[in-house]
Design goal:
Length: 203
């Protein structure tokens, strides 16, 4: 999908994307030439991280189906304690590693593997924020949400970001999650869900 251009916003050159804010604000990242790779637009990233502020500072993040890694890198730029990137394309992962090296980034891990396979492994880190943006055509949202919940990857107050085609059916979320934000921009629906503590009622 072509990233939607927004009037009045500074555009990134073709093949690049721009970090919105934080210590690497306005730094540009290369985009790997991989079929179907669809970076989250700067406009959506800005809204998402407004939703997450101030909770992103010190958070441990998981960027599933990472692609360019734009979401996980934006989190690191804004003070996340660490990000695990999971991307099955070796080419996309190599470009992601090069981008992280150019930023002299620390506190990250890049895993070249399938997201579903990753989530069935023993849990080594509980995550406070998960970015869930698989290829739209793969229709993986339901299964990845189920695996995150079933295998206990999430901290007690975790937030989960989901991005999907606006014409796709809304994903089936685990019973302990609730949607706190739900918006559309162009052809994209993007949502933020939160783990609901037992007995807690969200309005």
């Amino acid at each position: 999908m072509t990233v939607k251009k927004t009037a009045g916003k500074k555009k990134s050159p073709a093949g690049q994307l721009r970090i919105v804010a934080g210590i690497w604000r306005s730094r540009r990242l290369q985009i790997a030439d991989v079929p179907g790779l669809r970076p989250t637009s700067s406009r959506i990233r800005e809204t998402l991280f407004n939703w997450l502020t101030p909770g992103i500072h010190g958070a441990y993040c998981l960027d599933l189906c990472a692609g360019t890694g734009a979401l996980g890198i934006e989190a690191l730029s804004r003070g996340a304690a660490g990000t695990t990137f999971v991307e099955r394309s070796a080419k996309a992962a190599a470009t992601l590693k090069n981008n992280l090296a150019s930023l002299e980034a620390k506190r990250f891990e890049v895993r070249i593997e399938d997201a579903q396979q990753f989530l069935t492994q023993p849990v080594t880190q509980k995550y406070d924020v998960v970015f869930l943006d698989p290829p739209f055509a793969a229709d993986l949202h339901d299964e990845l949400c189920r695996l995150l919940d079933k295998h206990d990857w999430l901290s007690s107050k975790a937030k989960i970001y989901l991005e999907l085609d606006k014409d796709q059916s809304l994903p089936t979320l685990p019973a302990s999650w609730s949607v706190v934000h739900n918006k559309t921009a162009g052809n994209v629906r993007y949502m933020l869900a939160a783990v609901q503590a037992q007995g807690e009622v969200r309005k």
